[in-house]
Amino acid sequence: MKNYISINNKKIEISEETAQRLKEQFTKQETPSSEVAMGEYQFTTSISWNEKEEVLIKDEPQRKIFVNQKFADNSIFGNNCVFIRCKFGNYCEFGSYCEFGSCCKFGSDCKFGNYCRFGSNCKKLPPYWDENGKHEK
Question: Are residues 26 and 78 in the same domain?
Fold first, then answer.
């Protein structure tokens, strides 16, 4: 079956692939933001970090988003995770391609995989050694 579109009253044949992409583009349903939002925005100063329960992660989650969380020592994360305004204990490990939004704080001796990105105001407590043995303050 051939597919056609009309532009300025001119009939133009299009491929099956193009027809499918156009169909998907014009039939997409709206998604309520409440279904995709991971957490509420909070200023880090409004979070009572001393009273917040620590979460221990050991299952190496992949492609997850965490907001306003406090992670226990020795937590382990997989690849492509995003962290926004989170606190981490000591000896936490992260896979590659993780992103850290503004105001994340890390305990000492955390290990980061390749290509991790850090936002503004992220703080790594000393001693922190990068994969090349360089000490960052």
Answer: no
Residue with tokens 């001119």: 10
Domain ranges, residue 114: 32-137
Task: Say if residue 97 is in the same domain as residue 108.
Answer: yes
* Together in a domain, 21 and 36: no
Query: pLDDT by residue (tens digit) across 11-28?
Result: 888 888 888 888 877 776
pTM: 0.62
Q: Where are the beta strands (DSSP E) in 16-114?
A: 65-67, 70-71, 82-84, 87-88, 99-100, 105-106
Query: Angle at Cα 107 formed by Cα 51 and Cα 115, nearest 5°?
Result: 125
Asked whether the beta carbons of 110 and 127 are under 8 A apart, the reply is: no
